[in-house]
Amino acid sequence: xxxxxxxxxxxxxxxxxxxxxxxxxxxxxxxxxxxxxxxxxxxxxxxxxxxxxxxxxxxxxxxxxxxxxxxxxxxxxxxxxxxxxxxxxxxxxxxxxxxxxxxxxxxxxxxxxxxxxxxxxxxxxxxxxxxxxxxxxxxxxxxxxxxxxxxxxxxxxxxxxxxxxxxxxxxxxxxxxxxxxxxxxxxxxxxxxxxxxxxxxxxxxxxxxxxxxxxxxxxxxxxxxxxxxxxxx
Length: 233
Ligand code: IPE
Ligand code: IPE
Ligand code: MG
Known about the structure:
233 residues, 6 strands, globular, binds 3-methylbut-3-enyl trihydrogen diphosphate
């Protein structure tokens, strides 16, 4: 079966999971898995762009990931800096616009500075919108939105206004959500936004998730019938 270019999902969200297990299988430290995961991400961003996906959102660090060792957490932040250093020029050349979801400004100063540079450099780009969920939790995002609207008359708090108060304001809801590594859960990712997303779960560990795997997931998506609570046309 071939991909239908007319039905490419506008927004693909990914839970990039399985870096630790990938490393363990090879007798390597967990950070080597995160490093390999970063390399996989580089290829997936390029592929998403080539496929004509408009929005790609990746889960890079959750509000719960602080429970991990200080060594792993700081290693992930170091990799983030490395990612921006090695990829920003190419992202910019490819007209990719970077945005970040979550409480990323609470990260240590060095990654925050790097990320600000990535945002600033790409802010006028009109190609693929690449959203990185960083120190992100769906419940935290919903709470922050609720607090920001708490002074408003209740009847004025509509779904549209609530959506506009989330970190994903202006971004269409994900059409397709992919989670790698065989885990069948959301882990606090895009809870509001995934109300009608199609889910594709794969056993492939994130560092092994290739551009062909992304195509395969989109193919699976294209075989789904989306009803949004209505009836088959
Ligand atoms: C996902 O890989 C990356 C992050 C959560 C930062 P994991 O580190 O969760 O890998 P596993 O689940 O332990 O294999
Ligand atoms: C979700 O993966 C978070 C990211 C991929 C950044 P986790 O590995 O943290 O999720 P759980 O703990 O298995 O639910
Ligand atoms: Mg995991």
